[in-house]
Design a protein that fits this description.
The protein has 3 helices and 4 strands, in the order E-E-H-E-E-H-H. It is an alpha+beta fold. It has one domain. The strands form 2 sheets. The chain has a two-stranded antiparallel sheet with strand order 1-2. A two-stranded antiparallel ribbon has the order 3-4. The longest helix is centred in the middle third of the chain and has 23 residues. The chain is elongated, with a radius of gyration of 22 Å.
Length: 87
C-alpha cells in the first residue's frame, strides 16, 4: 500500500485516505484555534472523559478549600529552600 503525501492546496489541506484509515473506523474532526484535530473516536471519548475528571477534581478542590495557586507556589519554594540548605 503506497502512501501519498499530504498536500496543501488553495481549497485546503488534502490528507490521504490511507492516513485516516490507520485511525480506525470512526474519526472525530474538530477545529481548535489555528489547527484541525483529527483523532479516533476512542481517543476523542477518552479525552472528553479526562476533561470531565479534571473539572470534577478542580470543583472538589474548591469545595474543600484546597490551596490556591499562590499558596502552592509558596509551599514549593519553601521545600526548595530547605533542600538547597542540605546541599
Amino acid at each position: 500500500m503506497g502512501t501519498k503525501a499530504l498536500r496543501y492546496t488553495k481549497q485546503g489541506l488534502l490528507i490521504p485516505a490511507a492516513w485516516l484509515e490507520r485511525l480506525g473506523g470512526k474519526i472525530a474532526v474538530r477545529r481548535s484555534a489555528n489547527r484541525v484535530i483529527i483523532e479516533s473516536a476512542e481517543r476523542d471519548a477518552a479525552r472528553r472523559r479526562l476533561a470531565r475528571m479534571v473539572r470534577a477534581l478542580r470543583r472538589a478542590a474548591l469545595e474543600r478549600g484546597a490551596l490556591g495557586e499562590q499558596e502552592i507556589a509558596a509551599e514549593v519554594d519553601a521545600v526548595r529552600r530547605r533542600r538547597a540548605r542540605r546541599r
